[in-house]
Amino acid sequence: MEVNLLNFLAIFTLIAALGYWQNRKNDYFHRKPIPSLATKPFIGSTGSLLLKKYSIFEYICTIYNKYAGAKVFGLMDFNQPVFVLRDPELIKQVAVKHFEHFIDRRPIFGRDSESPDQLFVKTLFSMSDQKWRNMRATLSPAFTGSKMRQMFELVVKCAENSVGFYRGEIGQQSGKQYEMKDVFARFATDVIATCAFGIQVDSSRERDNEFYRTGRDMMSFGRFSVLVRIFFCRVMPSVASALGIDIIDRKHNRYFSKLIKEAVKARETRGIVRPDMINLLMQARKGLLNHAGETEQREGFAVVEESEVGKGQATKTMTEPEMIAQCLIFFLAGFDTVSTCLTFLAYELTLNPEIQRKLYEEIVETHETLGGKSLTYDVLQKMKYMDMVVSESLRLWTPIPAVDRLCVKEYTLDDGQGLKFTIEKGTGVWIPLQAIHRDPKYYPNPEKFIPERFSEENRPNINLSTYMPFGVGPRACIGIRFALMEVKAIVYYMLREFSFNRTHQTQVPLKLVKEFSGLTPERGVHVELRSRGK
Q1: Handedness of CA 73, 77, 81, 83 (dihedral sign)
Q2: What is the mean pLDDT of residues 337-347?
Q3: What would the DSSP string read from start to end of 17-73?
Q4: CB 3.0–4.6 Å: which of 116, 124, 184, 432 could bond 339 by disulfide?
Q5: Alpha carbon distance 371, 374 (integer Å)
Q6: In 112-194, where do the E strands start and end?
Q7: What is the helix (H) or strand (E) element at residue 149, kind and residue range?
Q8: CB-based contact 314:142 (threshold 8 Å)
Q9: E strands, 49-174, where?
Q10: Please, are residues 394 and 443 in contact by the beta-carbon 8 Å criterion?
Q11: What is the per-residue pLDDT across 25-37, written as a single tens digit (0 to 9) for each?
Q12: Which pLDDT tens digit goes with each residue over 149-167?
């Protein structure tokens, strides 16, 4: 009896201690002059998202609109306080002007360690402080316009091969229905395989090839085992690091590590030089890349100019695991972000045939000026309506709906109009990109697809702090040019060959899967590819 009582008391004490530790900060925002979302034990303010009552898109827009009159509000992400910035000027203060206070992302995917099986935490996305500075400066010269020109031919070959497959499948039929996420994920896989891993795959024809299958499995973030790892990395990052827990399966990490190591070894022993990312990373490891001689040009409205951090001089050599990790993040971004962007773009073109027609006319005109030659990177940049369409699609369907920052040293937020308070070190900040992009204050009739918002005449009216499809400030996505190049190239070749048409399976309005990992259509995006002239 006495033993049972002691056991009960021990368990009760443990639960009480865990409850106190988890909920000890729940009154944090009561001491701040800003509104905040209600919190619940253990899950904070994000319970409706975690319990899949909302898609990440819906959640961000819902909480943003709840405080329409506020410049900033608070929420609890599990037991961590997070400030959500609604005001463009405050966003600019935090993410650009006072970047030194918010240089890091929150360690929601774990912290860096020496374990060779932990690759995601070694990516540029996850690195912090000086490690991030060094890596950004090391990698930045690999993503300039001149480097994109060198790789563009590889992208074009993938686009032509992909279109050739669907042309052959449709044959003499007038058209055929496809799920566009699958179409574009396969194209994006082929591009990443050739540009980042130096291998040739044909995911349209070889539908279950090992590279595609491994990547698809790796991107299945809804699996229970992945959710458990993410939980450990978010709630107990130090424990996750000590145990070598990574959000990517160990077998997947080892698969991609082997590919990179074999490619590097083959190139070093045989003297192979190929205009791709592995070659650029090998040069970067040797300190041979820099921004000297680079002339920046506007390569799309969504492009963010590289900051002084990225243009600086790296002070540390990239290790082999770090190099492998960068190829891994290129794959993750290329497989999901690019294919997501293309899927929603296809959806909008399907629902807006007049816009599709105008874009097709520009494509035909561009094709005629090439005189039978392949599309080039510089010619692609001159396609103004193409950029308007892509820019508007990124506004309406932002692939990464929100970005975060970590306060690394105490900061006094002051809007100059009476709102003033302290953001303590270790506290998070959210920037709700998708909600800002759909705010009628900045974009009239925001739910409507209107490429003309980004015409040359209207661009000066857009506050750049309200348009951030690839993030904001020095930590904006480093691969913007690569992503836009890839998106525009496949749209050029696809629309030149096919029209996008609505079918009975095209879901209108589009509904999203209720999950926190990204923008995923509930029933896919089904579109009929109809051969031109048939």
Answers
A1: negative
A2: 96
A3: HHHHHHHTTTTGGGGSSS-B---BTTTBT-HHHHTTSS-HHHHHHHHHHHTTT-SEE
A4: 184
A5: 9
A6: 175-179
A7: helix 145-170
A8: no
A9: 72-77, 80-85
A10: no
A11: 568 999 999 999 9
A12: 999 999 999 999 999 999 9
Residues 268-300: tens digit of each pLDDT: 899 888 888 999 888 888 888 877 666 666 688
Does residue 117 contact residue 253 with C-beta atoms inside 8 Å?
Answer: yes
Predicted confidence (pLDDT) per residue in 519-534, tens digit: 889 999 999 999 997 5
Structure tokens given for 191: 């591009």
Q: Which amino acid is at 483?
A: A
What does the alpha-carbon distance between residue 92 and residue 246 come to, in Å, rounded to a whole number?
A: 32
Query: Of all helices (H) and strands (E), which one includes residue 277?
Result: helix 277-285
CA angle 336-491-197, nearest 5°? 45
Q: What dihedral angle (degrees, nearest 10) is formed by the CA atoms of 292, 277, 471, 412?
A: -60
Give residue 17's pLDDT band: very low, low, confident or very high (50, 70, 90): very low
* Residue found by looking up tokens 């773009």 in the block: 345
**Chain mean pLDDT for the chain:** 88
Q: Using an 8 Å Cβ cutoff, are 438 and 64 in contact?
A: no
Q: Which of 89, 534, 124 is nearest to 322 (CA)?
A: 124
Query: Nearest-CA neighbor of 475 among 119, 158, 104?
Result: 104
